[in-house]
Amino acid sequence: MKQATTPPASLDLPGESLQQKAASCADSHLPSIPAARGPSLAARVPTASVGMKFSPLARFVLAVLAWLPATFAIWYFAAPILLWPVALLAELVGRIGFAHIVRTVEQAGAIVTFTTSLRPGQAIAGGIVTVDVNMLLYSFGLPLFAALTIAAREGNRIRTLLIGYGVLLPAMAWGLMADFLKNIAITAPMQVVSQTGFAAWQRESIAFAFQFGSLILPTVAPAIVWVLTHRLFLERMRRGASH
């Protein structure tokens, strides 16, 4: 008669239970990570705006650039009318300050012709010296001032444009007269220069006046006039940039 044998108890069971208890004990000592509160990460990422927002200064610069082609076109084609007072002012200065040299001043479009009493020399008997000056070279600040004024979108723009135009007239006449005097006192032949009667210091003054009237006044004068007539606009622009 065979004796029934019972299978030996597996020793792995207590080992496995001990490992589970040890693992649960180790997990209990680990710090718990709280669940994230608030909106999810995707919700916290801002979505790209559909349209780009420009600062007031950037919008103003873009408006100036947009208006410049139109103002320059108007200035170029309307130059005979816009610059007619400049020719009158130059004629007045020439007849009063240089009456012994200037005989007549005539305008043809944007060109002013000075007819003088100077002789070109013995080689040309009975000839006289005439000087042509292009007024566009000294008036391109007008369309710049107009573009700045229109782009600022301030009230009374027409009045501001008229004030700026009137203030810039002497600056344009300065460049016109300085160009004429430079032609007869500096760049003309010596037989013509000697007839003008200008001393050396006077020719130096004419050279300085020409440089000032051709390089400085056409660009700086419109900017100064615009700043003086738009101080409130610039103050608002400064406060907006600080915020």
List keywords for this structure.
243 residues; mainly alpha; three-stranded antiparallel beta sheet; 7% strand
Structure description:
The chain has one domain. The N terminus is likely disordered. A three-stranded antiparallel sheet has the order 1-2-3, with helices on one face. Helix 7 packs antiparallel against helix 9. It is mainly alpha-helical. 63% of the residues lie in helices and 7% in strands.
Short description:
The chain is mainly alpha-helical and 243 residues long. The protein is 63% helix and 7% strand.
Helix % is: 55-70%
Could you give the order of strands across the largest sheet?
A: 1-2-3
Overall strand count? 3
Q: Report how far the terminal alpha carbons are from each other.
A: 105 Å
Mean pLDDT: 83
Domain module count = 1
Radius of gyration: 42 Å
- Per DSSP, the total helix count is 10
Give the oligomeric state: single chain
Shape, principal axes of CA atoms: elongated
Q: How would you sum up the major sheet?
A: 3 strands, antiparallel
Beta-strand residue fraction: 5-15%
The structure class reads mainly alpha
Q: Spell the H/E element sequence.
A: HHHHHEEEHHHHH
Low-confidence stretches: 1-19, 21-28, 39-50
Topology:
Blueprint: H1 12-29, H2 41-44, H3 56-77, H4 79-82, H5 84-97, E1 102-108, E2 111-116, E3 130-134, H6 141-152, H7 157-185, H8 190-196, H9 200-229, H10 231-242
Antiparallel strand pairs: 1-2, 2-3
Helix pairs in contact: 3-6, 5-7, 6-7, 6-9, 7-9
